[in-house]
Amino acid sequence: MIPQRSKSAGERGFAPGLDVRFRADRELDFEFGPGVFGPKPEYRSLDSIRQGLRNPNCTGPSPVYAIAMDVGRMEDREEMQKRMLLFGVVLYASGRLGDGPVRSQGHQHAAAPHCGWSTPELFEIWEGRAIIYGQEKAGDDPGRCVAVEAGPGERVVMPPGWSHFVANADVHSHLIFGAWCDRQYAFEYAQMRAHHGLAWYPLMSDTGEISWEPNPAYSPSELRRKKARDYPELGLPPAGSIYELLRRSPKSIEWVSNPEQFRGLWPHFEP
Q1: Domain holding 58: CATH number?
Q2: Which of the 8 DSSP states describes residue 30?
Q3: Would you say residue 169 lies in a domain?
Q4: Is the dihedral of CA 52, 55, 57, 60 positive or negative?
Q5: 64 in a structural domain
Q6: How many CB atoms lie within 10 A of CB 163?
Q7: Whole-angstrom Cα distance, residue 106 to residue 31?
Q8: How deeply is 103 buried, as exposed, middle or buried, from its count of CB atoms within 10 A (0-12, 13-18, 19+)?
Q9: Which of 20, 70, 118, 135 could disulfide-link 109, Cβ–Cβ 3.0 to 4.6 Å?
Q10: What angle do CA 251, 236, 126 make, to 5 degrees?
């Protein structure tokens, strides 16, 4: 068989400002174009995420997704390191995990040593349709619970300290997205695993519709379903790729690694 040519994110639709190419001849694989650095993708198997699912014995695609952390243009590497920023690229499989969508298991960000904060994250969808779920607290009382639907070119900000996961909301399509994270990122899973997942489970019908079921391991809560929005309160421009902001407007993303500058905003912030 002759391998099919890989396609960049721009050729597939939304142009992220970064030459990342997705292999058409392999299910979950991508490569980096000239002048772009990045590691080999890591693959998350279904077995590795079962503890966060409503039905941990479900069947579905495995690997569930591929992820590469610390991706960028060669000439930007020093600036990213100086600002303690890290860019990640993620590719989800299509299909379902049992009666739910293809998704991650859910986590909370550990406090980054350089700033002492459980840092926020800025997501940008490149292809497909995502639901990014977040809950304010990790303990028995989840606090505010929000599920944000986003499509190509739309962004979602997950604030400091919130537990969250990303789901592929289109059963027939891959989901591809990029995200700005703190360079000293680390994940905490203990509370999520103690509760057998986060406070709300997404379900996917045979026709691909998404509904939600509360996790009885948590105190009762209300789920707010929302569309992606702009974030003028963070100084985030409403248009253009989030990677390009590193050059065009670096101050508009520096809160990712320095959330202290919006200390007064975060307690009332919602994605």
Answers
A1: 2.60.120.10
A2: E
A3: yes
A4: negative
A5: yes
A6: 27
A7: 26
A8: buried
A9: 118
A10: 115
pTM for this prediction = 0.94
Q: Are the CB atoms for 201 and 51 separated by under 8 Å?
A: no
Q: Are 184 and 112 in contact, with CB atoms under 8 Å apart?
A: yes
How far from chain centre, in Å, is Cα 64? Answer: 14
Give the span between the Cα atoms of 29 and 130, in whole angstroms: 19
Per-residue exposure over 220-244, b if at least 16 CB sit within 10 Å of its own CB, e if not: ebebeeeebeebeebebeeeebbbe
- Examine residue 186 and state whether it is found in any structural domain, yes or no: yes
Q: What is the 3-state secondary structure (H, E, C) of 33-74?
A: CCCEECCCCEEECHHHHHHHCCCCCCCCCCCCEEEEECCEEH
Residue where the block lists tokens 């939304």: 14
Per-residue pLDDT tens over the stretch 11-60? 556 889 999 988 755 678 888 999 999 999 999 999 999 999 999 999 99
Domain range for 130 is 7-268
What total of structural domains would you count in the chain? 1
pLDDT tens for each residue of 230-258: 999 999 999 899 999 999 999 999 999 99
Do the domain assignments include residue 82? yes
